[in-house]
Amino acid sequence: MEEPGRGAIELFVREAGQGAPIVLLHGVGANHAIWNGVIPHLATEFHVLAPDLPGHGRSPAPEPPLYGFGEMTADLLHLLDGRGVRAAHWVGLSAGALLALRLCLDAPARARSLTTIGGSVYTDGHSRAVAERWAETYAREGPDAFAVRLLKDLYYPDWIEAHMEFADRLREEVPRVDYGPARAWARAVAGFDERSRVASLVPPALIVQGMDDQVVDASHGRILRQSIPGSQIRIFASTGHMVPVERPGETAEAIAAFVRAVEAGAAAGGRP
């Protein structure tokens, strides 16, 4: 029997600036705040929308609780429709990068460009094992041990040493978060695989990767670059999985330069 679908939900979104629209998508268990260091830079030139995805942050959990890529794509297109935006520049981190890639493949007319950060064309065994370790740590050792595990896996060690106040704040926040929606989305992420379609991607693409990413191996950046014709790549040394948090100014600069080039190419009647 076919499973019941669900309607699109109204997503909470942080919105700033004017110009070409850029949508910033967070990953599993996070919210729009991971982009807080990036948004002020981009908003001087672009219309920035940073939503909380379903069940994350301040967005409601859907009923029925479906967190597949198809349902979440519909939520995002509903967000654009409500603002009269035909097509946007999609930027995603981690699972948000997978969602952005899927949206650009399924609805290319709604995409001006794609930027993946710590993304991949498929979820490999290493990334699945990391997610399973997180779930086991929370279940067996509790939220504080889980928070420490996240800090070790997501961030470059030197960055954490220089930002201990961030680590303390994360450890305070984790016990207050409902990770049910995150676990549901993580199940969809575990089966993600677009290797058969990625070469047909229409919008221009930028791949951003941290060299010291412990969640998505840096090799996936090269795989994406090789799989998407005409794509560009930017690699940050001494950087973990959370590139926009560790390097917000440089992340914003990379996105802005790429979007400017795409917009200029479109104005001239072609790709940059």
Short description:
This protein is of the alpha/beta class and 272 residues long.
> What is the CATH architecture assignment?
3-Layer(aba) Sandwich
User: Helicity level, as a percent range?
Assistant: 40-55%
Strand order of the largest sheet: 1-3-2-4-5-6-7
What is the CATH H-level superfamily?
Alpha/Beta hydrolase fold, catalytic domain
Sheet bearing the most strands, described?
7 strands, mixed
Radius of gyration: 18 Å
How far the N terminus sits from the C terminus, by CA atoms, comes to 47 Å
What is the β-strand count?
7
Overall pLDDT metric: 95
Number of helices: 11
Q: In terms of structural class, how would the helical and strand content be classed?
A: alpha/beta
Count up the domains: 1
Q: Into which percentage range does the β-strand content fall?
A: 5-15%
Order of helices and strands: EEHEHEHEHHHHHEHEHH
Q: Unreliable runs, pLDDT <50, ≥5 residues?
A: none
Task: Report the principal-axis shape.
Answer: globular
Name of the level-1 CATH class:
Alpha Beta
Structure description:
- The protein is an alpha/beta fold.
- It has one domain: Rossmann fold, CATH 3.40.50.1820.
- Helices cover 44% and strands 14% of the residues.
- It contains 11 helices and 7 strands.
- It has helices at residues 39-42, 69-82, 95-106, 125-141, 143-154, 157-162, 164-173, 180-190, 219-227, 243-246, 248-267, and strands spanning 13-16, 21-25, 47-51, 88-93, 111-117, 205-210, 232-236.
- Strands 1-3-2-4-5-6-7 form a 7-stranded mixed sheet, with helices on both faces.
- Helix 2 (69-82) packs across helix 3, helix 4 (125-141) packs antiparallel against helix 5 (143-154) and helix 5 (143-154) crosses helix 7.
- The radius of gyration is 18 Å and the shape is globular.
- The protein starts with 12 loop residues before the first strand and ends in a 5-residue tail after the last helix.
